[in-house]
Amino acid sequence: MSPMPDRSGTTMKKRASGKKSSGDRKQRLAAALRANLQRRKSQARQRQAGGTEKSKSKTDSE
Question: Distance (Å, rounded) from C-alpha 9 to C-alpha 14?
């Protein structure tokens, strides 16, 4: 029987044996935050420019 994965998808066995430095975690979190910020900025720009194609086609068909 294989170990059950935790919420992040890694197994408890892997996480216990393969501990990484907190610096690596900070780098991953920082990269994820940057990507999230870029995505949110892009969404905000699209809203200011009049929305996405999906919302345009939805309102045109009504």
Answer: 10
